[in-house]
Amino acid sequence: MSYGQIFPQWRAAAGPHWPAYTQHRFVQALGNGSLPRAAFLHYLVQDYLFLIQFSRAWALAVTKADTVQEMRHCAATVHALIHDELPLHIGICAAAGLSEDTLFRAEERAENLAYTRYVLDAGHAGDFLDLLAALAPCVLGYGEIGAHLLAHGGDGPYADWIATYGGADYQALCHAVGGLIDSATMARLGDSPATTPRWPGLCKRFTTATRLEVGFWDMGLTP
Amino acid sequence: MSYGQIFPQWRAAAGPHWPAYTQHRFVQALGNGSLPRAAFLHYLVQDYLFLIQFSRAWALAVTKADTVQEMRHCAATVHALIHDELPLHIGICAAAGLSEDTLFRAEERAENLAYTRYVLDAGHAGDFLDLLAALAPCVLGYGEIGAHLLAHGGDGPYADWIATYGGADYQALCHAVGGLIDSATMARLGDSPATTPRWPGLCKRFTTATRLEVGFWDMGLTP
Amino acid sequence: MSYGQIFPQWRAAAGPHWPAYTQHRFVQALGNGSLPRAAFLHYLVQDYLFLIQFSRAWALAVTKADTVQEMRHCAATVHALIHDELPLHIGICAAAGLSEDTLFRAEERAENLAYTRYVLDAGHAGDFLDLLAALAPCVLGYGEIGAHLLAHGGDGPYADWIATYGGADYQALCHAVGGLIDSATMARLGDSPATTPRWPGLCKRFTTATRLEVGFWDMGLTP
Amino acid sequence: MSYGQIFPQWRAAAGPHWPAYTQHRFVQALGNGSLPRAAFLHYLVQDYLFLIQFSRAWALAVTKADTVQEMRHCAATVHALIHDELPLHIGICAAAGLSEDTLFRAEERAENLAYTRYVLDAGHAGDFLDLLAALAPCVLGYGEIGAHLLAHGGDGPYADWIATYGGADYQALCHAVGGLIDSATMARLGDSPATTPRWPGLCKRFTTATRLEVGFWDMGLTP
């Protein structure tokens, strides 16, 4: 998937960390249905806690946007995360016998803390672009994973998960986020962003966040 | 208007600053229709810029909330500000011949900078309650002003403005924000918040923000 | 005074706002000794409160630096402000009969709130450069004012103030801050920063902070 | 060690996580000299990167302090970290053949990212107390570890490290930080902080940071 002009360049700069994330053993096991149910539920609980922090990070992006257009985009994402995606998780977990209160009180694993707090700090330490570079691997990597798994079957016990991230709605969101990254980058770095002094730092942010996604899947395998 | 339990106490602590804000000459002129059109349009332009910063402040509140319930409330407010209230301003201004680009490029007056950046800093310097105490005078003061003007006529050239803030939708929003302030305060300070060490500081935040609202009306009278 | 390569360009971009600040009536009255004592003491009290917020802003810069070198510079400034400059103010005020507690409890004027909170927000909203552009007018403008007044006499009732800001120590600090701005700008925007998309925004930050400095002097004249 | 009134209560609330940190296998190996040199150097490199982030966190505390006294304390800590403790690390590493540039360019391990970014986020999400509760395990735990190892010998290949953290200067710093925690807590929560609604949240912050310290030692054992 391309999702715009900048994302493929950041992805290439991440080197082997990118496939280590998108083709992780957890992902393969989701796709072929071999993932133990306990691992999936454990992942869902941590992902619920993750989404809370991810919503905070997109809300931070609203405070760091330069234009009303950028604010609108980020605020719509916060709204979708809190009003659509969190309830989706709550529903799946409820069906598996986990109450929302159980979710909220679950202890965040260190791999979860590492990833989410790194993203938030990228925003506090830098500017809107730094934050987007740290947010991108999650949003767009899940799009790539979902599309890939769907194209290679997409059935089995985790068909719902695959249908969500491989489906048209989430793919449209990825294209929109890819477009936001492109326009935000050009507005700040001009037409040749890869030749500017800030480029290596943005690639490093993206790569670090990708490494932490790998850690998140590792954690998913150890309930 | 009471809008919950805490707001009336903060309002009382603000002493004469509160009526200086809610019964300001600008407000009276809005109510009796004597406000010059130039002053109203000038106010609308500055209020557009204000709303952008106010949206940022509510987004900051999302990042400082302790519970998903608090996050939901603040995220819904950000969404309403950016997707409903900003377009409302853009519409009124467009009808008066002011494009959105003109609005966005207008220079923020010092009184506007003072108020909005004080609110944002209250959030960065303190916690969720500090931010709510700085946000409260605007949200709830406009509710009080709108309800008062509507009860005393509400017609004339500024009837639309009065109908917006005095109307059921905005009044419901004020009651909801008053409830959020109450629950957030109790969750952090307990059942007798006025006896805790943080109370004077919260009253001071509310009072300072109220003083800066007075300055905003003063500014409105000097296009 | 040049204080590096970037500052003179930002100063030129500020147009008439710069002399409105550095040649303000308050400054002229400091220089020729005609400033009423009450105005000077009033200014000192507000400047004490200003320095507290300014220290917070330089501490924020520590959190937004990219290199240890940048951190060292900003941390040394925080230390100098809190351990040297604040006590200097406390000493002058004590000699005039104002205790530190009186200073700390004084009410910040709106012009003071506008300036300091704008600078802090520049840091939170943007990156290290945005913050430096908002900090620069105060640090370097005082250097220019001090040098100018010292070169044109520097005696009279406010000779101490002039000697402080026109003296070798403060001038050295200005050259160091000018150098920090230069190196930080080149590290992020390259060798031709004025041709990059971010340049107008940085000039606007500098200009807005300069406008707010004018407001601070205005406030100084109205105890 | 007690280091004030509040710290022992937070430490007790951390339960088994506290000894898991302060009596970790890495600590025991430091004390009896059995720690492989490679592990120690690996730890020093990560600790250098840690100290940069820790300096940022104490600088963030300056921006969140309520009084000049609190600001002074935190600014002095930033100064000591950047001007004394970082050079100490640079010196030890240089003696082992590692340049400062090598240190600065080393990749932060996930366990390091988790801990440091969690502390920074505690400050951004909450208030001064939240930040102190997240900072406390590192500062005071090292004091406890150093004092314990020194009292039980303190010689061997890591005698310098033990002498630093067990020595009078660092112990005095711990007592000062313990005092800051006490006074900051009383100023915000009153005389019975453990009975206030915020207490469980502060204990949780302290415990989470302690868990992440355990992870940091684990990381130290796997160069």
UniProtKB/TrEMBL annotation, chains A, B, C, D:
Gene3D superfamilies: Heme oxygenase-like. It comes from the Bacteria. Residues 13-221 form the Thiaminase-2/PQQC domain. GO terms for cellular component: cytosol. Pfam families: TENA_THI-4 (PF03070). This is Thiaminase (Transcriptional activator TenA). It comes from Thalassovita litoralis.
